[in-house]
């Protein structure tokens, strides 16, 4: 899912996820070309506190 969808899933703003990526925090994500994508399982793990720092 893209950053906007991931932010909505977490009850956050897309800008928050962008800041977390720059700071090395937040849910794991993957780059597909210039696009940032999130896996639903990683978002659920992050929300539950059982997460890995992004790849």
What are the defining features of this structure?
2 strands, 3 helices, mainly alpha, DNA-bd_dom_put_sf, Helix-turn-helix domain-containing protein, two-stranded antiparallel ribbon, 55 residues
Task: Explain the layout of strands and helices.
Blueprint: H1 3-10, H2 14-23, E1 30-32, E2 35-37, H3 40-48
Helix pairs in contact: 1-2
Notes on the protein architecture:
The protein has 55 residues and is mainly α. 49% of the residues lie in helices and 11% in strands. It has helices at residues 3-10, 14-23, 40-48; strands at 30-32, 35-37. A two-stranded antiparallel sheet has the order 1-2. The longest helix has 10 residues, at 14-23. The two termini are 16 Å apart.
First-residue to last-residue Cα separation: 16 Å
Mean pLDDT: 90
Which structural class do the helices and strands define?
mainly alpha
Counting DSSP H or I runs of 4 or more residues, the number of helices is 3
Total of domains? 1
Low-confidence sequence ranges: none
* Count of extended strands: 2
SS strand fraction: 5-15%
**Oligomerization category of the chains in this entry:** single chain
Shape: globular
How would you sum up the major sheet? 2 strands, antiparallel
Radius of gyration: 10 Å
Give the ordered list of helices and strands: HHEEH
Question: What is the helix fraction of residues, given as a range?
Answer: 40-55%
Strand sequence of the main sheet, in spatial order? 1-2
């Amino acid at each position: 899912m893209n950053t906007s969808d991931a932010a909505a899933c977490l009850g956050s703003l897309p800008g928050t996820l962008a800041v977390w990526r720059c700071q090395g925090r937040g849910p794991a994500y993957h780059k597909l070309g210039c696009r940032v994508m999130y896996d639903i399982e990683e978002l659920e793990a992050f929300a539950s506190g059982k997460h890995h720092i992004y790849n």
